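quick one, 329 residues, struct below
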Amino acid sequence: MTPSNLPSALGARFNVGSGRAAGLTRGRMRAKDLDRPFHGARRTVADIAAEQDAITRDTEPLALTRTTTRLVRSKALSYLQVAACGSFICGVSAALLRGYPVDSSDTLDVAVFAPRRAPKGRGVKGRTIRRHLVDIEELDGIPTSSSASTWAMLGRDLSVRKLIILGDAMVRIPRDDHGIPHPERAEATIEQLQATIDAGSRAGLKKLRTALDRIRVGCSSPLETEYRLDSEDAGLPEPELDVGIYDDRGRRLGISEFAYRQYRVVVEIEGDHHRSSKQQWNRDLQKYRDYANAGWEVVRVTAHDIRTQRRAARIVREVLMRRGWRPHL
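---
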């Protein structure tokens, strides 16, 4: 038997109370065209299918990140149909909503302010937090812990290295299509991260302090941060990050992730988009030719060099020594 049409006013997501008020019977709300993502919440199967179709058609770079963000957003919107007043998305879920580099989770992280009890239920990881330890923002209609607050709340869950990677992603200053940096578009600042530490005692505070000392503005991907940390641990000189490279006439030749200016060496982290995009590949080749003509040596390293072989810092070290750098004894 085909289920009857739903009242359009209900939308694609609603709770059981709203369904009853709209005249739906208990049987109708258990029909096969409705999904039950959380206790008391309903979502149309048609809406889920449309979302999956959009995910399938998204084949551009960063599609995986967008897919994760889209799915977490869907969970959050469904949960809001039954959430207690004052609930907000936090922790890993809040980080994923913003597209930050953290491991995904099947559960939705939801918090309330003390002294209220943490939310419970299938698919929900509840948390109670003191009001002065978190700032809340609305992200696409979803109450969510701010970027800086999210970082601090993850101090109890993430390793120091992962907190640094996450912090680097938050304080990154985006560039526009013309390569111009826009500090006003950064989602957090180092000062804001420091303020979350200063706000009061919380779980993971020692890890947060250690991580903050090594967070830098200028890394735009986890691979870049991982190379930076490995090179620091290997004793290499500190490079300039996200730096424009110019010729003697002041013409900008390109923007590189790492520059050891004294030794005229740049390090380029080759992600998948460099390989899969023909346009990006051609731009990179021209940039490297221009760099060479201007006296710069380009060192290209991959995820395999950084994560699997752990040899990227060693590769750069050899080039720097050939160009005149000597480690401190």
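The radius of gyration is 24 Å.
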